[in-house]
């Protein structure tokens, strides 16, 4: 399952980061690495952002970036 498919209010754990280059570096710069717990706070129904809490910080991710993060 990817982070894009996770439901609102769900706690998930990152199992793998897909992709590479600048996109992967941007995701890792946000503190999203293998083994990190992520809480999905809000998903825009039509728009792009997915709002998550990672290590106590509230972040917004693009759905295309969230599709590159495999979670358990």
Please explain how this structure is put together.
The structure is a single chain. It is globular and about 30 Å long. The protein is built from 2 helices and 5 strands; from the N terminus they run βαβββαβ. It has helices at 21-29, 63-66; strands at 11-17, 37-43, 50-54, 57-61, 69-71. It is an alpha+beta fold. Helix content is 18%, strand content 38%.
Number of strands: 5
Radius of gyration: 11 Å
Q: Please describe the biggest sheet, giving its number of strands, its sense, and whether it closes into a barrel.
A: 5 strands, antiparallel
Q: What is the H/E order?
A: EHEEEHE
Q: Helical amount among residues, as a percent range?
A: 10-25%
* Percentage of β-strand residues: 35-45%
Distance between the termini: 7 Å
Structural class: alpha+beta
Mean of the pLDDT scores? 93
Query: DSSP helix count?
Result: 2
Globular, elongated, flat, extended or rod-shaped: what is the shape? globular
Report the uncertain regions: none
In the sheet with the most strands, the strands line up as 4-3-2-1-5
Work out the oligomeric state of the chains in this entry.
single chain
Fill in the keyword field for this structure.
alpha+beta; 72 residues; 2 helices; 5-stranded antiparallel β-sheet; 18% helix
Task: Indicate the topology.
Layout: E1 11-17, H1 21-29, E2 37-43, E3 50-54, E4 57-61, H2 63-66, E5 69-71
Antiparallel strand pairs: 1-2, 1-5, 2-3, 3-4
Question: Quick gist of this model?
Answer:
The chain is α+β, with helices and mostly antiparallel strands and 72 residues long. The chain is built from 2 helices and 5 strands; from the N terminus they run E-H-E-E-E-H-E.
